[in-house]
Design brief:
Pfam families: 7tm_4 (PF13853). This is Olfactory receptor. This protein is mainly α. The protein contains ten helices and three strands, in the order βααβαααβααααα. Helix 1 runs antiparallel to helix 2, helix 3 runs parallel beside helix 7 and helix 5 runs antiparallel to helix 7. It starts with 8 loop residues before the first strand and ends with a helix. The relative contact order is 0.15.
Amino acid sequence: MGNLTIITEFLLMDFSKNWELQVLHAMLFLLIYMMALMGNLLIFILISLDGHLHTPMYFFLKNLSFLDICLISVTVPKSIANSLSHSCSISYLGCVLQLFLVILFAGSEISLLTVMSYDRYIAICLPLHYETIMTKGSCVRMAVASWFSGGVVGAMYSATTFSLPFCGPKEIHQFFCDVPSLLRISCSEKHIAVYVSIAIGLGLVIFCCISIIISYGHIFTTVLKIPATKGWPKAFSTSLPHLIVFMVFIITGAMAYFKTPLDSDSVLDLMFSMFYTMVPPTLNPVIYSLRNKDMKAALRKFITWKYS
């Protein structure tokens, strides 16, 4: 114990040692961040102001937009600041908080996407019971449960990861604090508690995936029984965007944790680990609003009201 060094800060990875490339990285990330921020903020504002959008589906979409804003804001601004300041340090407590928030928002988003698939299942397969099942109180409880599940997993991940001793080196091979990169620099070889937490988180993801598959299995079976000219456009316009968002989120997350080699120094590998915190929040506003007539109508009303 006498040789154990107390770690008070960590060093996040540089995008490049070249200053011009550092600036290019910062500008690119800033552009992506602003697109995600403005897109999700616009959806949040439109749903809040337009009374026609005060329905369960848009209530959950509003929560999803807020989660996307939070998720991308945890990692990207810090990465931009590091690129421009020549300082890659993050405090020990800052790293704990960043890991906790990333897992909280990512876990909450997966749970919320599962709840949204249940909402679409009730709306399409049990339309006569929709108003009695998807009441305001039940929607709030499901949203709270989504946030709570993410918080529990985030607390487990951060508590078990930072219960490990870190005695050097303190360079994290990543743009932000995540579990795999922190395990690499821990001087403990016993990671049983962390693996248990990861298994619980993986179990939650598998449960969500199975639930969504079952929901959309029923949805597509029901939709295919409807004449194509009547119900298909509306059903697919509300269901397919949600399914696309979930697939993007899961695929990019898998690329980060299962496909990327942790011992690689490739910039491409490091970029993969940022995808699940950047790609879904950036694409969600486009996917949900591009072909959504209600959102387009709300946007036209907002512009007319703003400039009238």
